[in-house]
TrEMBL record:
Positions of transmembrane segments: 6-29, 41-59, 79-101, 108-126, 132-149, 156-175, 228-246
Keyword set includes Transmembrane: yes
Entries under Gene3D superfamilies matching the protein: 1.10.1760.20
Cross-referenced Pfam families: ECF_trnsprt
Protein name as it appears in the record: ECF transporter S component
Domain of life of the source: Bacteria
The species this protein was found in: Nocardioides panacihumi
InterPro entries hit by this protein: ECF_substrate-spec_UCP037395 (IPR017196), ECF_trnsprt_substrate-spec (IPR024529)
Keyword annotations: Membrane, Transmembrane, Transmembrane helix
């Protein structure tokens, strides 16, 4: 649906690397003289720019109006799904559609849908904040990965997508925790005597152990697990029914692009998987 050239893939890889660095940078510090970490705000300013550059690059080849229409409709539906679930108790439906659309329309479309869905849903649910670029990037990775899954058909495909939904639900919670955890000071969980805060004077291994404990206690056993269950159940029950109209729309949509600066003719896009 959205053409990914070798240059687009390279830019996407570089952007993903930059995004990963913005998530893990505190763990690379080791400053015995410091008692708290100060975030490099240039990273916070850079990440939205990086995401915008990737989206512009992916759209540079030209998008058929029907492709834009499909993207707009799926973004709106995903925003509504997130609005009615809102992550309450970990019940989160937003990744269900991102995974299925990424599966059908490919990794580039999945990446863009992951970004637009989280952005629009944040506007709808008043969830705009410094965490939003990280949420957009992580959900974009989910859509990207769905488009790269191996071929499968029938029940095997649904099982593959459900299993993928479980894995990325936990990874999403892990990465979002990593974004916020180093900025919390004096973290202590009721019922636990040990401190679970990031220590800039500690080694990488020591901070990783504390982070794993923090994640297991605060999100893995609650929010992340509920998100994984919700996503897997939705894919299992509704996946086949949703994949059918998505693939029908894919067969009717066309994409125009350019190769080495030369325009190409519109072509039919075969369904994936």
């Amino acid at each position: 649906m959205i053409r990914m050239t070798s240059r687009s893939a390279l830019i996407l890889a570089i952007a993903s690397l930059i995004g990963l660095i913005t998530l893990v940078w505190p763990l690379l510090l080791n400053d015995p003289t410091s008692t708290r970490v100060q975030p490099p705000f240039v990273f916070l300013a850079l990440l939205p720019v990086v995401v915008a550059v990737v989206l512009a690059e992916l759209a540079q080849g030209g998008l058929d109006p029907r492709v834009l229409a499909i993207l707009g409709v799926l973004t709106a539906i995903d925003a509504v799904l997130r609005g009615i679930s809102a992550g309450t108790g970990g019940v989160e439906l937003v990744f269900f559609l991102i995974i299925l659309a990424g599966r059908v329309y490919g990794p580039a479309f999945g990446f863009v849908l992951g970004c637009t869905s989280l952005f629009v849903s944040a506007l709808v649910t008043a969830g705009v904040g410094p965490w939003l670029p990280y949420q957009m990037l992580c959900s974009a990775w989910i859509g990207l990965g769905a488009g790269l899954l191996p071929r499968a058909h029938g029940r095997a495909e649904i099982a593959l997508l459900a299993a993928y939904g479980v894995v990325v639900s936990y990874l999403y919670g892990l990465l979002l925790n990593l974004q916020g955890w180093p900025l919390l000071a004096g973290v202590a969980i009721p019922g636990h005597h040990e401190q679970l805060a990031f220590d800039p004077a500690a080694s990488l291994g020591e901070n990783l152990v504390v982070f794993v404990k923090y994640t297991l206690i605060t999100s893995t056993t609650s929010y992340d697990t509920m998100r994984a269950i919700t996503t897997a159940v939705a894919i299992t029950l509704l996946g086949a029914a949703v994949l059918t109209p998505l693939r029908r729309a894919a067969r009717r949509a066309t994409v125009t692009g350019s190769v080495s600066g030369r325009a190409t003719e519109a072509v039919d896009v075969p369904s994936v998987g």
